[in-house]
Amino acid sequence: MERREIQESEKGLLHSKQAFRYEVVKVLPELAEDLDKVFDYAKPFGNFRLAWIDTDIVESSRDTTATALGGSFGFDTASLNGFSLHVSAHTSQKIPLLNPATLTLNGDYFNKDKDSFTYLAESSIDYEDENFYLRIGRIKIDTPYADSDDIRMAANTFEGVWTEYKMTPELSFQGYYLSRWAGYDSGEAQDVFKRLYETQEVDESWGALGASAKFAFNSDDEVSLWYYHVDKMSDIIYSEVSGHYHVNEALHVEYGFQASHIQENDASHIAGDILGCMAIVDYGDFFFGFAGNYAFVDDENFITNGFGGGPYYTSLDESTIGFISEISPGMDVLSSRVGIGAKLASMGVADLTIELVHGQLSATDRSNFIKENDIALTYEPNARTALSAVFANFDVIESQSQSDSDDFNRFIVRADYSF
C-alpha cells in the first residue's frame, strides 16, 4: 500500500502516534501573473465544528457541560513568484439554549471568562518552490514538542518562523523559531497569544529555536532527529525510528522507538531522559496496540510534554507521562497503554471505527498512580465530514498531590465539516 493509503486507513487514538505523523502535506496554491491576480485567485477554506462536552467529577457529583459552534475559517491567496498569504481565524460561539448557567458551564470551549471568542490564529507569508518551504507569522505546525493538538475548539498555533528543505525525496530538514502561542493547550486565555514559556518566576523567555532532520528509508520506514533550545526552560533532543512491516495483504505491524534527552536551563527543573516503544498489529478490520514509556528523572526535576500534546506513545485522551512526572518531581515514572479496535465495515457500517484503550501511569515508588480508560467512536463517511465521540474515565488510585475528588468521567462529541 502507498503511504497515504495507509494513513487514511489508520485513524483513531491508537494510530495517532503512527509513522510519518510529522510529514508536511502541501497543497499547491494557484499561480498568479501579477499582484491583482493574487487576490482574484484566492481560495477560501474552513472547518465548521459543532461540539458538546460533559465532565462529571465523581466525588462531588459536580457536573459541567457546554455546547459550542465554531471552527476555523480563512483563505489562501494565489502565489506570485513563490510567495502567498495564508490567513485563518479560530472561533467558538456559545449556543445559548444549549448551555447552562456560568457556574456549571464547562470552560474548555470558551475563553478565560467562559465566553465566546474569535481571534486571528494564523496569518503568514509563505514561500514555496520545488524543494523549499517557508512560513513567517502566525503558523500551525506539528513537531514532537510543539504541535497543534486539535482536541477542543481551537488548535494550537504559534508566532514565529518555520522552514523545510527537501534535499532529496528521502532526506529533509526543518528549522523553526517560535516566540508565542495560543490555543487550548496554551493556558486559560486560549484566544490570546502569550510567551511560549512563562511561569511566576520566568516572564522574559524569548521562546524556542530548533532544527530537525528526517530520512525515509522507503515508503514505510523513517528515522528523525529533532533539537529544541527553549530559553530559560530546557534543551531537548528527540529521536525516533518508526514505520510499518507488511506480513501479507491483510496483516501489517506498525512499530516505533523513541528517545528524548531533556536538559534544564536556568534551574527550571525540567529535565530527564525518556524511552518509549510501540507496536500496533493490524489484521483486516481489527487492530491491537501496546505502548510503553519510561522516564528517568532525579533531584527535583520533571519532564515536559512541550507545547501541545507531546510526542509520547502512551498519551491518552487526558493523561500523559509528562503529567504524572510533573506531580512526581524527582521520581522515575512509567506509563503504559493497551488498546483494541475494529472497523465495523464487516458489520454493514462503513467508515465507522470503535476503540477501547486502557492506560496506567505511576511514579516508581507508587506515590502517584493513575488509571485511565477511553472509549472512542469515529465515523468519516467522506473526506469532508467527520463525527467522533470519546468517553474518558480518569481514576486516581494513589496520590500524594491529587485526591479522589480528581476522579472524573468525560464525554466529548464532535462533528466537523470541512470545505
Low-confidence stretches: none
Summed over residues and divided by their number, the pLDDT gives a mean of 91
Distance from N terminus to C terminus (CA atoms, Å) equals 27 Å
Which CATH first-tier class would you pick?
Mainly Beta
What is the helix fraction of residues, given as a range? under 10%
Shape: globular
What Rg, in angstroms, do the CA atoms define? 21 Å
The CATH architecture can be given as: Beta Barrel
The assigned structural class equals mainly beta
CATH H level, superfamily name: Porin
Please summarize the sheet with the most strands: 18 strands, antiparallel, barrel
Number of strands: 19
Number of helices: 3
Number of domains: 1
Descriptive report:
It is globular and about 65 Å long. Helices cover 5% and strands 51% of the residues. β4 and β5 form a beta hairpin. By secondary structure, it is mainly beta. It has an 18-stranded antiparallel beta barrel. It is built from three helices and 19 strands. It has one domain: Porin (Beta Barrel).
Quickly list its features.
about 425 residues, 19 strands, Porin, mainly beta, 18-stranded antiparallel β-barrel
Write the layout of secondary structure elements.
Layout: H1 3-9, H2 35-40, E1 43-57, E2 62-76, E3 83-94, E4 117-128, E5 132-139, E6 157-166, E7 171-182, E8 194-195, E9 208-216, E10 221-230, E11 234-246, E12 251-264, E13 272-283, E14 286-296, H3 321-326, E15 333-343, E16 352-363, E17 369-379, E18 385-398, E19 408-418
Antiparallel strand pairs: 1-2, 1-19, 2-3, 3-4, 4-5, 5-6, 6-7, 7-8, 7-9, 9-10, 10-11, 11-12, 12-13, 13-14, 14-15, 15-16, 16-17, 17-18, 18-19
